[in-house]
Automatic annotation (TrEMBL):
Main location: membrane
Protein name: Protein kinase domain-containing protein
Organism: Nelumbo nucifera (Sacred lotus)
Family indicated by similarity: Belongs to the protein kinase superfamily.
Signal peptide range in chain numbering: 1-25
Lineage: Eukaryota, Viridiplantae, Streptophyta, Embryophyta, Tracheophyta
Top-level taxonomic group: Eukaryota
Keywords for the protein's UniProt record, in alphabetical order: Glycoprotein, Leucine-rich repeat, Membrane, Phosphoprotein, Receptor, Repeat, Signal, Transmembrane, Transmembrane helix
Amino acid sequence: MASLQLYSLCIIFFFCCFFNTLSRSSSDVEIVLRKIKPSLRGGAENMLLSSWSTGIPVCQWRGLKWVFSNGTPLKCDDVSSPERNNISLFRDPTLQLVSLQLQGAGLSGKIPREIGELSSLQSLYLGVNSLQGNIPLELGYSSLLSDVDLSGNFLNGSLPLSIWNLCDRLVSLRLHGNNLSGSLPQPVLPNSTCRNIRVLDLGNNSFSGEFPEFITGFHRLKELDLGSNHFSGSIPESLSRLKLKKLNLSHNNFTGALPVFRQSKFDFRVFEGNNPGLCGSPLAKCRGSSGLSSGTIAGIVIGLMAGAVVLASVLIGYVQGKRRKSRGGDENEIEEGEDEENGGGGGCEGKLLLFQGGEHLTLEDVLNATGQVMEKTSYGTVYKAKLADGGTISLRLLREGSCKDRASCLPMIKQLGRVRHENLVALRAFYQGQRGEKLLIYDYLPNRTLHDLLHETRAGKPMLNWARRHKIALGIARGLAYLHTGMEVPIIHGNVRAKNVLVDDLFVARLTEFGLDKLMVHVVADEIVASAKIDGYKSPELQRMQKCNSRTDVYAFGILLLEILIGKKPGKDNRTGEFVDLPSLVKVAVLEETTMEVFDVEVLKGIRSPMEDGLIQSLKLAMGCCAPVASVRPTMDEVVKQLEESKPRNRSALYSPTEARSEIGTPF
Ligand SMILES: *[C@@H]1O[C@H](CO)[C@@H](O)[C@H](O)[C@H]1NC(C)=O
Ligand SMILES: *[C@@H]1O[C@H](CO)[C@@H](O)[C@H](O)[C@H]1NC(C)=O
Ligand SMILES: *[C@@H]1O[C@H](CO)[C@@H](O)[C@H](O)[C@H]1NC(C)=O
Ligand SMILES: *[C@@H]1O[C@H](CO)[C@@H](O)[C@H](O)[C@H]1NC(C)=O
Ligand SMILES: *[C@@H]1O[C@H](CO)[C@@H](O)[C@H](O)[C@H]1NC(C)=O
Ligand SMILES: *[C@@H]1O[C@H](CO)[C@@H](O)[C@H](O)[C@H]1NC(C)=O
Ligand SMILES: *[C@@H]1O[C@H](CO)[C@@H](O)[C@H](O)[C@H]1NC(C)=O
């Protein structure tokens, strides 16, 4: 091992010396023209590259920045600079290349080895081209390189060991979306800290091997993306020592217990799609020392129910006042091996009740699906589950205390199964086990919640201007209006809040978790409502009475609309402990004539007239929905009508979903 490292060191030093000598003999301009240009363009004539020509002043060569060897930069932007139009400047042997930036330039060749001869090169940006072949070993000899972005090409082969020659200078290394393979090479020097590196993005490649633990010694690292590779093994605890702002370890084959991150700041998506053995917050708890986080749904159902059996049967016994004997375990797969008395009564237990759009599902599919905990809510646990055929569904296992007798439960389930509306997540199937455990099977939507969109500060999130927020608000209002009046029997949502709104790339909002309070026995439903004391969406009468109705939904919608307009979380702030009362905030602002200041700054972007763009009307509407006296609140149908009338004029942003937030405030 030691001799191998020594050997590599020798090679590295050999190359360093070799190239230092070489670069004295050919100037950077020569390297650019004779080696880099023909290699990058890969045959075809390229518009940008053709500007690199002795017939054109150096200042007009696209994508290049230069410095003279005495350290003065070549000032091409300065109109008065004598060098700007100097057609013979390319002959100057002291001209050295500092930066090569040709992103998305349609390049189809290879990265030439001679790149390593550019001794002053600091940044190399060749992302989003069609470059092929390897990353040349020589790249590691451009000893001043600090920023390298080769993302989005077709590079293959392994990452050369020499890359860590750049360790001390390197600030960002982005190789996302190539086809690089093999394990990551270890820096030759032990305990390398690469003290300047902030960004290491190796995502969406074919890297394999163990988690590259040496990375955890890069103590300034802020962004680490190893997602969508073939890494395996466990994730070292030392990772939690890094003060990472962004992390992506999804879609690998990592297993074992996750490190404990301070303030549990990463959500499950950072770790999803790994070996089912990966566990620990924010994924499922590790069980015992083996640490299983997920398994087949049948396993989850049995496991959870076994744990909850005592509690559940006590509760059910209390509510029902009696128990019935089971009729024996017939074809029911998940109850195998259980011979205790159990609370039957559901009537459809052991069978999958299918609704429109769920016809393809079978009980076997569902119970054999591999589940992963996405979220725990007051009504139970939500899993993302992969079916054997490759499809994905969302499963909700209701907590204990759900209704049990056929008469009250099934009609409600069937009613929920009939709800089909663009702004409501569709229930596709329902399963009830013999103990009364209930699985609700929904479409899986890989979308973000409105709560995330509004309050999480992750770079790359879409900008939320007024047109987009209006579309989201209108979607929610339409969904609620449909629940209240679009069906024979009205459905009360009962839990309107930003976390229960999914938003897709085109800003279509979809409500989840509607009607679930009706599936709980009364005591439990009341307990859920009552326990949500810190919840800012709760209407005044609900604080006292604990019964949801359409007017309490309208109130919650009003708060949600304020949240959309103002950009602040309602209710108790977990960090400061303060209670944020959005309607009071607006009242104070109106009194102090600072109404425009309550809006989120992003909302006001591109707004010419808050009146004509419907902003003020929407604020008034939201306040009307939050009226303390329930009877003066509008109905959801009225809300929809008013929102439709207050559409923003400029809605062009709605058709460019990829436009991202600017990354103001990030330190790199
Ligand atoms: C143009 O650049 C060359 C090489 O640096 C130099 O010798 C020459 O004097 C410059 N010409 C003008 C007009 O500045
Ligand atoms: C890399 O891709 C090229 C084709 O672009 C192929 O010829 C070569 O064998 C590949 N190398 C590796 C190591 O996969
Ligand atoms: C991953 O890279 C491939 C090309 O190598 C690309 O087609 C795909 O869209 C990328 N996926 C993600 C999630 O970036
Ligand atoms: C990536 O490389 C592997 C072999 O190393 C090859 O099988 C696969 O097709 C390549 N993928 C792409 C997108 O080029
Ligand atoms: C590297 O770190 C390990 C433990 O952190 C230490 O035992 C070892 O001596 C260090 N090696 C060098 C060369 O500093
Ligand atoms: C993932 O790792 C496990 C061992 O931890 C191994 O059995 C399995 O084959 C790996 N899966 C893939 C797709 O590499
Ligand atoms: C992680 O990266 C993959 C692509 O490599 C992407 O699809 C996914 O959204 C990323 N997840 C997070 C949490 O950033």
